[in-house]
Each structure stands twice: as structure tokens, then as C-alpha cells.
């Protein structure tokens, strides 16, 4: 039904939680997860990316029965302005305790656009 692009910031634990949440949401919405990007933090000063910390192949193969995971967006989607299309959902847009129904009613239609 679309692609989930996740970016995570903070320390290792916050990044891990963001990755787990992104995988769960992608699975729940039958979407494809793009390997998450880690944002550079002026606090942590760590430029590491997902593949610097995790074994991508193991991550992908371990979750293969639950969620489709790709390393990057297909080339025909890379140049799109997702913000202009209204296809960007951030943590600030989601209730802290968002339910599966919330994601289905509010996020799934965005993916289907």
C-alpha cells in the first residue's frame, strides 16, 4: 500500500525504538519499509547510519515474513516532494498511544495516495 520512510534521532535506544515502531507500522499497514535513516544529532555528534550499527541483511531476512523491507525508494519516487503532496506524517502528528484503528483510519489513506 505504499512505503514507510522512517528517520530516527536521539541516542541508540531512541533510534532502536523508532526502527521497531516503523517496522510494526509497516507490517500493520501492509506497506514496504525503507531502511531507516538516522538523523545527525548535535547532542550525540554521531554520524552513524543504520548499516553502521545493524546488519541490514539480517534485519531484512529476520522480518521477511512480517514486512517487506527495501534499502531505498524506487528511483521513480525519489524525486517526489512528499511534503507538498501531504504524505508526511511525523511523531508530532500522531497521538502518543495511537491504536491500530487510528493508523488504519488516518495513515493508510495517506499511503494509498
From TrEMBL:
Domain of life: Eukaryota
Keywords tagged on the record: Carbohydrate metabolism, Fucose metabolism, Glycosyltransferase, Transferase
Membership in a protein family: Belongs to the glycosyltransferase GT106 family.
Presence of the UniProt keyword Glycosyltransferase in the record: yes
Coiled-coil region(s): none
Membrane-spanning residues: none
Species this chain originates from: Genlisea aurea
Stated name of the protein: O-fucosyltransferase family protein
One Pfam family cited in the UniProt record for this chain: O-FucT
One of the record's GO molecular function terms: glycosyltransferase activity
GO biological process, one term: fucose metabolic process
PANTHER family: O-FUCOSYLTRANSFERASE 2-RELATED (PTHR31933), O-FUCOSYLTRANSFERASE 8 (PTHR31933:SF4)
Amino acid at each position: 500500500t505504499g512505503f514507510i520512510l522512517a528517520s530516527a534521532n536521539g541516542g541508540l535506544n531512541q533510534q532502536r525504538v523508532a526502527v521497531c515502531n516503523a517496522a510494526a507500522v509497516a507490517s500493520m499497514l501492509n506497506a514496504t519499509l525503507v531502511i531507516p535513516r538516522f538523523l545527525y544529532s548535535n547532542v550525540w555528534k554521531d554520524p552513524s547510519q543504520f548499516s553502521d550499527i545493524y546488519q541490514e541483511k539480517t534485519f531484512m531476512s529476520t522480518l521477511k515474513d512480517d514486512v517487506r523491507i527495501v534499502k531505498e525508494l524506487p528511483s521513480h519516487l525519489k524525486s517526489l516532494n512528499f511534503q507538498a503532496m501531504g504524505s508526511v506524517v511525523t511523531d508530532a502528528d500522531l497521538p502518543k498511544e495511537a491504536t491500530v484503528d487510528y493508523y488504519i483510519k488516518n495513515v493508510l489513506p495517506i499511503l494509498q495516495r
